[in-house]
Write a structure and sequence with these properties.
The protein is mainly alpha-helical and 141 residues long. The chain is built from seven helices and two strands. The chain has two domains: 30 residues, no CATH class; 80 residues, 434 Repressor (Amino-terminal Domain). Strands 1-2 form a two-stranded antiparallel sheet. Helix 5 crosses helix 6.
Length: 141
């Protein structure tokens, strides 16, 4: 005759990570994975909590970057937005130009803040980079 014995659950840690204001909770994480995560995170220096960090205006934070871009000051926001989105998605200027129905030189001029992004082009960019609204690509926003 067999006797049913109660199986004791293995206690595994619960990990809570807060990334960009969102909490992510992971339950029943194997110990081996926790140690790998801790080892990985130990390579990064601890930082101040978000509440204690000084808030810096966008223009000041990217002052050197905008100086490097050059071009017209009102176009620098658009230049930064287009270049960042293009690079994040692994597009070359030529590929992005083909998707937008323009030429590579036009994309280069936009990214160097020599030319503004027009409303039609902003709409096309928003269709390609779907997580952004057209206004994200317009100058001075």
């Amino acid at each position: 005759m067999s006797v049913h014995t109660k199986k004791h659950p293995i206690k595994r840690p619960v990990i809570t990570l807060e990334i960009e204001g969102k909490k992510h909770v992971y339950q029943n994480v194997p110990i081996s994975q926790v140690s790998k995560l801790l080892e990985f995170l130990s390579a990064f220096p601890p930082c101040e909590s978000v509440e204690t960090l000084e808030k810096i205006p966008f223009e000041d934070a990217y002052k050197d970057h905008f100086a490097k871009i050059g071009g017209e000051v009102p176009n620098q926001y658009s230049a930064h937005a287009v270049r960042t989105c293009r690079k994040e998605n692994g597009f070359t200027q030529t590929v992005l130009a083909e998707l937008l129905g323009t030429d590579q030189a036009h994309i280069s001029n936009i990214e160097r803040a020599r030319k503004p992004v027009g409303k039609r082009l902003a709409k096309k960019l928003a269709q390609i980079f779907t997580k952004y609204e057209p206004s994200f690509f317009l100058s001075g926003i």
